[in-house]
Each structure stands twice: as structure tokens, then as C-alpha cells.
Specification:
Layout lengths: L1 H12 L3 H4 L4 E3 L14 E3 L1 H19 L7 E6 L5 H13 L3 E8 L9 H11 L11 H13 L7 H16 L3 E4 L13 E5 L3 E2 L9 H19 L2 E6 L11 E2 L1 H7 L22 E4 L3 H16 L5 E3 L20
Helix pairs in contact: 4-10, 5-6, 6-7, 6-8
Length: about 325
């Protein structure tokens, strides 16, 4: 019932015109009447459009406002993610009351084979003392380092925050990431308890000759997701909805890969943090763009924080449904 209500409520004002009949139209003379013949201009009633927009905003507010009040959240952005998705996700998280600690954009240099040795050396030097690293290689070690800089669900504090700023500053100085706000030197960085990892819908085709798109996703981005998941209370990996067929170029992106592999143990049989093998504690959302997607992003993160990871969106891998359940107190919840 909740799913049907949300789909109906948002759909009615976001383009589901057939449910209500055609939009109200007026002839150029100003009086309502049947559609006239050729050459007569038709104007969609601007008052009705304004009403629809305000109604939609009010409904989104009822579903989103205050759902994440006070929760510290970091946002991590993978190469190729639309900037519009990043902006809307940040805006919606803030509207939900989340406290955004930092937005880290991973640069293409992270998975560039010509920079692997540099990243490996940097990761070895930046890894906080006492951290365990897997033996699988540079992708896992680098992922562990970045996760340790962002997430402090278990051991936050001034010392950890100072080390985190140094890690992000070092990675940024060599072009592996950018951070917003810029983090450098001895500045302190507030730790997050949850992470939203934004990814493109499809892994791009091309790239460096020796690395294909599927291997970039599996080799670099899945270990990063595993590291963030094992270090945080909740990880949501979200991507826009793709309507382009795979034949048009590229390969399935991170969300598709994670949904296909949901419940399996991370590559190598252990988490990126060195813990014993176990199922992935990762929520995914295929279709985070648009107002429907942004509502789902917040609700999916709320569910993940409550200990209920799910695989949402459209596609065969979205085994938890198109959207997360509505919290108690929501319309139809």
C-alpha cells in the first residue's frame, strides 16, 4: 500500500497526466472551450502548473524533512557521475537534516594503471597506525585508507579527525581525489557514520588501453564500496537510471554489479578492512535521479541506518522493490 501511495502521489504531479486526463488548456481568447482548429495557439494554465509544483514540493517535504536529523554523512563521488546527481543528492540530504561532513570526488587517476605504484606508496604511508590491510593489493589498501579518513562510526575523536585531514590532503595533493570543503594540513575533519557513494549508471567504455571498464568496476570500485561499508553504520550506493542499452557502449556500473552480487562476500573472501568474510552490508539504489529518486535515496539511507540494507530501483537486481518502505508517520506509512 505504501509503495502504491508514493508512486501515485508523486507520479500524479511529475508527469502522470493520463491518470488525471489532459492538462487544462485555454484558448488564446482566455475562455475555456474545446480545442480550436489549426493556427490557434493553446496555453497550458500556468496556475495549474504552479499548483502542481507546490503540491509536489509539499509532498516531498513530508517524506524527507527531518528523516536524517543530525546524522553525519559523507558523500563519495566516482568518476563519470553526473554533476546534477551530486548536487541534488547533497541538497536532499541537507533537507533531510543530515550533517554533511565532506564530499570527496574520486579522480580517474585512482584507477589509472600508470599511477598505481604512486597510490600504493601513498596508501602505505597514510594508513593510520593499527589499521589492518588486506593482502589483495593496492585497490583494497587505498580503499581502506580513504574509508578511514571519512568514517568514524566506532572511534571518532580529535586525533582521528586530524589524521583524516592529513589523509585527504595527501590524496588530494597528488590528484587522486578532490574534497569539498578543501581539507589540508592539520585541519580537523568531522567523522561520518554513514556514506552515500554516487556512481554513474554505466561504466564508461574506453579508458586506458590496459584496463577495461568491467575490470575498473570490479577491481577498484567494489573494494572501495566494501571498505566504506565495513567502516560505517550504513552505506548507500546510488546511481541514475540508465535507459541506454549496453550495446550503445560501456558496461554495467557499480550499482548493477553490487545488486547482482548482493549477499555475496567481498572479493578475496574478506572485507577491505581485513575482517572475516561475511555478506555485504550495502544498500543500493538504481534510479537516484529525479524527485522520486531523491526521496528514495533518503528513505533507503534511513532503512540502512536501522540495520535493514536493501536493493532498490528498477531492474532485476532491485530485489527489495522500486522504493524503500515509508517510515512510520509518513502518508501511508
Amino acid at each position: 500500500m505504501a509503495v502504491g501511495l508514493l508512486a501515485l502521489a508523486i507520479g500524479l504531479v511529475l508527469g502522470a497526466g493520463p491518470l488525471l486526463g489532459p492538462p487544462v488548456r485555454r484558448e488564446s481568447g482566455g475562455s475555456p472551450g474545446p480545442l480550436a482548429g489549426a493556427g490557434q495557439s493553446l496555453i497550458v494554465d500556468s496556475g495549474a502548473a504552479a499548483y502542481d509544483q507546490q503540491w509536489t514540493a509539499a509532498l516531498v517535504g513530508m517524506l524527507v524533512d527531518g528523516r536524517l536529523t543530525g546524522v553525519p554523512v559523507s558523500v563519495v563521488v566516482l568518476p563519470g557521475t553526473p554533476s546534477s546527481l551530486v548536487a541534488s543528492a547533497r541538497r536532499t540530504l541537507l533537507r533531510a537534516g543530515a550533517r554533511l561532513t565532506v564530499t570527496v570526488t574520486v579522480q580517474s587517476a585512482w584507477s589509472d594503471p600508470t599511477r598505481t605504484s604512486v597510490l600504493a606508496d601513498l596508501a602505505s604511508r597514510l594508513l593510520p597506525s593499527g589499521s589492518r590491510t588486506p593482502s589483495a593489493g593496492t585497490p583494497q589498501r587505498a580503499a581502506t585508507v580513504l574509508a578511514s579518513a571519512l568514517v568514524g562510526a566506532t572511534s571518532p575523536g580529535a586525533a582521528h579527525e586530524g589524521a583524516s585531514a592529513a589523509i585527504l590532503g595527501g590524496l588530494g595533493a597528488l590528484g587522486f581525489i578532490t574534497a569539498d570543503p578543501v581539507v589540508a594540513g592539520t585541519a580537523r575533519l568531522s567523522m561520518a557514520s554513514a556514506v552515500v557513494l554516487l556512481a554513474p549508471a554505466r561504466a564508461p567504455s574506453g579508458g586506458t588501453p590496459s584496463v577495461t571498464a568491467p575490470s575498473v568496476t570490479a577491481t577498484w570500485w567494489e573494494p572501495l564500496a566494501d571498505a566504506l561499508a565495513s567502516s560505517s553504520r550504513a552505506l548507500l550506493v546510488a546511481a541514475p537510471l540508465s535507459t541506454a542499452p549496453l550495446s550503445a557502449g560501456g558496461s554495467p556500473g557499480l550499482v548493477t554489479d553490487l545488486q547482482t552480487a548482493s549477499g555475496r562476500t567481498p572479493a578475496g573472501g574478506a572485507s577491505a578492512g581485513g575482517a572475516s568474510a561475511g555478506p555485504r552490508n550495502i544498500s543500493t539504489l538504481a534510479g537516484a535521479d529525479g524527485q522520486q529518486g531523491q526521496v528514495s535515496l533518503v528513505l533507503a539511507l534511513v532503512e540502512a541506518l536501522a540495520g535493514h540494507p536493501g536493493q532498490y530501483g528498477l531492474g532485476s537486481g532491485a530485489t527489495s522493490g522500486v522504493l524503500p518502505p515509508l517510515p512510520a508517520g509518513s502518508p501511508g506509512g
